[in-house]
Structure formats: structure tokens, C-alpha cells
Amino acid sequence: MSALPAKLAEIRDDFLALAQADRLQLLLEFSQELPELPERFADHPDLLERVEECQSPVYIFVEVDDDRIVHLYATAPREAPTTRGFASILVQGLAGLTVEEVLAVPSDYPLTIGLTEAVSPLRIRGMSGLLGRTQRQVRERSA
């Protein structure tokens, strides 16, 4: 079993080091750090996949470059800070990883960051959906 990528482990540890209420604040900070979509998606919203598991409208797109490095792009409304926060955690945590590293991320990662008591199970399911759809797109684009 491979180790969790360093950035995702760091994010998890940052959450677990905080009290429950402070974890929500950190999630809010992540929501504010979600990068804007690259300009090339403005004319091609059809490239983005809706993450149906999320209550809020969140969309993702994965690119795999020639070096098999994964690039995840996501968008979610500012009025949905929990969803934006989860998307931002994955965008930041998976940045620069190889196909193999992204595919090795355990599907239960969303359960390990200490938010299961702070947010609803439906929201955690949404983050799991984000990760699952990201990994599926990585498999498709690297085949």
C-alpha cells in the first residue's frame, strides 16, 4: 500500500491538529483559495464534468500532460464554501502528482481529515465523489 502523497498528508494533519470549530474555518480558507478556471474553459464549459454527488453545482476537468503529471481544475459557486473547500483541497493536494500517485490516493481520504462531525454525511459523500470522478478521469486520460 502506498503512502499518502505529502501534500494531502499535510492537509490532513493540518485539519486534525485543530479543534472541530477551527476545522470549519480552515475549510473556509481553502474555499477562498480555489483557483479560477483557466481561460480556455470559458469557451468550452462542455469539457467540465458535473460532480453529481455534490449538493452544490461543482464541475471538474482533469488533464494529464506528456510527463503523466495530473492537473485538476474545479469550479464551484462562492455561495457553497464547503463544496469549494473540498474541491480546493483536492486541486491543491493533487497538484503536481503523477497518474500513479493520484490513482493510489485512498478512496476514504475525505473521511480522514476530521470533518465527519463538522459537516453532513452528504457533504462528505460529495468530496468522495469529487475524488472518485477525478481518479476516473485520470484513468481515462492516461489510458
TrEMBL record:
Q: Which residues form the Fe-S metabolism associated domain?
A: 15-136
Kindly give the InterPro entries that the UniProt entry links to this protein.
Answer: Fe-S_metab-assoc_dom
Q: Which SUPFAM superfamilies match?
A: SufE/NifU
**One matching Pfam family:** SufE
The superkingdom of the source organism is: Bacteria
Question: What family is it from?
Answer: Belongs to the SufE family.
What is this protein called in UniProt? SufE family protein
Q: Which organism is it from?
A: Protaetiibacter intestinalis
